[in-house]
Amino acid sequence: MFKEVDARGMNCPLPVINTKKALESIDTGKITTIVDNEVAKENISKLAKSLDLKVDIQENQGTYYIDIFKDHHLHQTTSMDIQCDINAKKDLVILISKDRLGEGCEELGKLLMKGYIYTLTEVTPLPKAILFLNSGVNLVVEGSEVIEHLRKLEANGVEILSCGTCLDYFKIKNKLVVGGISNMYTIVEKLNGAKNTLKL
């Protein structure tokens, strides 16, 4: 079977995610992923090698054609575990204190945060909870570009909580559309009670 994934113009991590989905959708055959940047080419090549699949890459005027040959099932046991336990959560609580990821360019930071939250919906196990405070609460209100991703996480059992004081400060409490309103005591309790925490 042959499938083509045209990932030109897609932001990371979509080329890798779409390629992995295409590989999982066939028993044997070839997937050709088309990308237009070096980073995507390297990431997809690493994905194929991690799955023990043969890769052949051709380049034509800055466009890369990555042929991946699948002749065996992809980690059948692992796939079954994930499929059967899709809602599994590790004991990780993520604290998001800004509406962007990293320092420097604001526009890039917002794009990276959008990519990060989307990617959370595509990996397992899921975090136990995501806590939003300070300008991070802008991600859970009307107009946020990540609402659908957060709703998907919440539907899969991830607890979404936002700082009530922060929502009040920015006068956006009435615009909250995903998750619940929390307080500092509960936020501290969630962080202290988790085996692993991550602050963004």
Give a verbal description of the structure:
The protein is α/β, with parallel strands linked by helices and 200 residues long. The protein folds into 2 domains: 2-77, Translation Initiation Factor IF3 (2-Layer Sandwich); 86-199, DsrEFH-like (Hypothetical Protein Ychn, Chain: A), CATH 3.40.1260. The protein has 7 helices and 9 strands. It has helices at residues 14-24, 38-50, 76-84, 106-120, 147-155, 164-169, 184-193, and strands at residues 2-6, 29-35, 54-60, 63-70, 92-96, 129-132, 159-163, 180-182, 196-199. The strands form 2 sheets. Strands 8-7-6-5-9 form a 5-stranded parallel beta sheet. Strand 5, helix 4 (106-120) and strand 6 form a beta-alpha-beta unit. Helix 1 (14-24) packs parallel to helix 2 (38-50). The protein is elongated, with a radius of gyration of 19 Å. It starts with a strand and ends with a strand.
User: What's the CATH class of the largest domain, please?
Assistant: Alpha Beta
Q: Average pLDDT across residues?
A: 86
- Which structural class do the helices and strands define? alpha/beta
What is the strand content?
15-25%
What would you say the CATH architecture of the largest domain is? 3-Layer(aba) Sandwich
Written as H for each helix and E for each strand, in order along the chain, the element string is EHEHEEHEHEHEHEHE
Largest sheet: 5 strands, parallel
Spatial separation of the terminal alpha carbons: 42 Å
Indicate the low-confidence ranges by residue numbers: 76-88
CATH homology group of the largest domain: DsrEFH-like
What's the β-strand tally? 9
Please tell me what the overall shape is: elongated
* Whole-number total of structural domains: 2
Write down the Rg. Answer: 19 Å
Helix content: 25-40%
Might you state the CATH topology name of the largest domain? Answer: Hypothetical Protein Ychn, Chain: A
Number of helices: 7
Biggest sheet strand order reads: 8-7-6-5-9
